Amino acid sequence: MTDNTAAVVHKAALTVGFLAFAFAIVSAHTTPATGYELSIYRATPLRFWGGVGVGFLVAAVVLFGARSRRLVDGAALLAGGCLLAVVSIPLLRSYAFYGAGDAMTHLGWAREIQTGVIGPDAVLYPAIHLIAVELGALSGLDLTETLQFAPALLFPGVYLVSIPLCLEVLSGSRWAVPTGIAVAVLLLPINKVSVHILAHPSSQAILFTPFVLYLLFRYLGSPGRGFSATSATGAAFGLAALGMVFVHPQETMALVSVLVAVAGLQLVVRRYRPTAAIASHRPIGVHTVVVGTVLVAWLLRHERATSRFEGVVSSLVTSGATTGDGTAERGASLVALGGSVEELFLKLFAVTTIFCVLAGAVALYRVAGRPDPARPWRNAAVTYLSIGLLPPTGIFVVVFLAEQGDHYFRFQGFIMVIVTILGALGIVALLERMTVDDRRRAASTAGAVVLGVVVFAFVLAVALQLAAVHQSPYIYQANQQVTDADFDARAVAFEFHDGETVIAGIRSGQGRYIDAHFGRETAVWELSFPGYGDDDAGVTGETFNTNLTTRYESDRYLMVGDRHERQEVDLYDGFRFSQAGFDRLDTDPRVERVQDNGGIRLYRIEGTDEDA
């Protein structure tokens, strides 16, 4: 096939791909959610998945098969659009809100900033809240919608653009953009354990990290040897790094640890190997000190941050490593549901593991002293990234050993940003070796085989990764959708609440909804809402199934929705909360249904004091 013929074929393929993408968007948008959906994947029309699948396939073929930069850019746009379509399904299908946990508390903070109850500086990580408030002011949309834009579109979009830019700066290869966009759409940092595509500042900070790294690399390689904060790249890098403090300080701490490692490496190289390429790069010591100082100053203003740090230290000193019990319990639950830890690991981390091996191979190849003499900048970049991995990995180990829940997976997400770039550099090097004669590559049998293998690997990796980008029964988790019925039922219950009776819930109380409705700071410091922050406000499976009407001395309300019944009965097969327990709510004479809006039911449970 001649170059002209191939270009025509690729243009036609891109046309088909963009039409399929548009068809997918329309299909999703015209089938809005009408209630709670246990699986966002099954509830989204098959037409959407078909259109997105065609789009990804076409993008892969053109990305790695076309020689024209314009065609490659078009394929990159198509692949990025398809990813954002999958990520933003909750927006496309008009979810009232997405994120039934932490995101609800962030909604409460955003409401308080919007109404002036608190200032942005009262929140430890105010960036996404301010973005949502400003979008609401500009568009007139409610915060329940605008708070979904940053997690679903803005920060994934920044990540999608930044990874290819990093590769182009570091490698200078024609394979940088195709490889960069291919690995970016995998969203490897999103591990679904503690990094998510919903309003969760830690996750947004992780997706913002490649942009900061891109500016760092641009600054390191800019002309000149001395410090220059007034240059365009120096100022941009400094501002981006400072801005990350307000997206989330925890991930900024990991970033600062990387900067410290890079700055230390520069000092050592200048001292002992002054002729090495790294010795000629711009120093980042001043940037590191400034960002670190601002980070510490910001953290000291917030008791939440200092108490977290004290908790980590205290746990390590007094308790030691405490990582086994929770993992063992969750593993036992998985087995009871017909799954296994090994199966879940493969679903969540199969592609991640491959990239870790790739990144490790690239780093070891560099450490072994076999750099490519024709690419000194790439060699230096691999050294920077390899050394930069060490401090956040150390932080990961410390948090893993401390009793801090699954916070160590946040650092794993940050680490995967660097691993993604290192692994992608390895893929670029492999593609360069496999396509030595670039002018005859497209026409050769070997070139066609290479293209076929690359496209197949890309499509398979995308399918594996995007199958777990949203919580679903595939990974033994329920959809994080929040419905209009959820909000409406709480609004009525809170408005007419007697101020004394606890409103309980399945597994947990109404704390997140109280945060979202009244505002987090208002709920904590002013309301004294019965049951708020009380573990006893969450009904356990044992109580629900056997002694719901004899467990509590005083009356209490119980909020039950379609979400709970579908999650506990359909997804978990009654493992903790049985169908009989749900049926008993409407037959037990000591349980009275007082509210029902079609999606949420509120029951009043008679306490044992009534018998006295």
From TrEMBL:
<feature type="transmembrane region" description="Helical">
    <location>
        <begin position="76"/>
        <end position="98"/>
    </location>
</feature>
<feature type="transmembrane region" description="Helical">
    <location>
        <begin position="253"/>
        <end position="272"/>
    </location>
</feature>
<feature type="transmembrane region" description="Helical">
    <location>
        <begin position="44"/>
        <end position="64"/>
    </location>
</feature>
<keyword id="KW-0812">Transmembrane</keyword>
<feature type="transmembrane region" description="Helical">
    <location>
        <begin position="197"/>
        <end position="217"/>
    </location>
</feature>
<feature type="transmembrane region" description="Helical">
    <location>
        <begin position="408"/>
        <end position="431"/>
    </location>
</feature>
<feature type="transmembrane region" description="Helical">
    <location>
        <begin position="380"/>
        <end position="402"/>
    </location>
</feature>
<feature type="transmembrane region" description="Helical">
    <location>
        <begin position="149"/>
        <end position="167"/>
    </location>
</feature>
<feature type="transmembrane region" description="Helical">
    <location>
        <begin position="443"/>
        <end position="468"/>
    </location>
</feature>
<feature type="transmembrane region" description="Helical">
    <location>
        <begin position="174"/>
        <end position="191"/>
    </location>
</feature>
<protein>
    <recommendedName>
        <fullName>Dolichyl-phosphate-mannose-protein mannosyltransferase</fullName>
    </recommendedName>
</protein>
<keyword id="KW-0472">Membrane</keyword>
<keyword id="KW-1133">Transmembrane helix</keyword>
<feature type="transmembrane region" description="Helical">
    <location>
        <begin position="284"/>
        <end position="300"/>
    </location>
</feature>
<feature type="transmembrane region" description="Helical">
    <location>
        <begin position="229"/>
        <end position="247"/>
    </location>
</feature>
<feature type="transmembrane region" description="Helical">
    <location>
        <begin position="344"/>
        <end position="368"/>
    </location>
</feature>
